[in-house]
Amino acid sequence: MTQDLPGAGELVLLVGLGNPGPRYAGNRHNVGFLVLDELAARVGGRFKAHKGGAEVLEGRLAGRKVVLVKPRSFMNLSGGPVAGTARFFKVGPESVVVVHDELDLPFGALRLKLGGGDNGHNGLRSITKSLGTKEYYRVRFGVDRPSGRMDPADHVLKDFSTVQRRELALHLDRAADAAEALVGSGLAAAQNAFHAA
What we know:
alpha/beta, Rossmann fold, 6 helices, 7 strands, 36% helix
């Protein structure tokens, strides 16, 4: 078993961050939800409401048991549902992988890591506080910084541009591949495969 494998053999919680409701569905901030929808298509099945405060789907990816998790709270309160779901399934932070938008990466670029700061991301800040540690895995999906004087908070609450939407499905598929590689092969192997491009 690889040392840098999330969960080291047990169940893995794959969490996608976003805001609930149709108003936010296509926002840059909801890219975590969009990647989870792609993973759900691979797992087969539908998300169901869970008492931990999230929509969940249990299944297998890369030969391992996973629970796909979409918090039902708004982004800045993601930590409660993530921690509640982790407690329910009896897994620690080392078994949690969070997929989220990242302003400091070009559109569609991916970076995978374990631990680190929240870089102003309210969803990550909430999860770190609720889990009591920064030591969980992240799949960071680039959404670019806004051009001009637009506030980054406004930028992430807008939909992807027309040009970006043409390429979005390809990038979501690749991000799902990266999450699957992280779960199946470990952090170093997934970084080698997905950081180069």
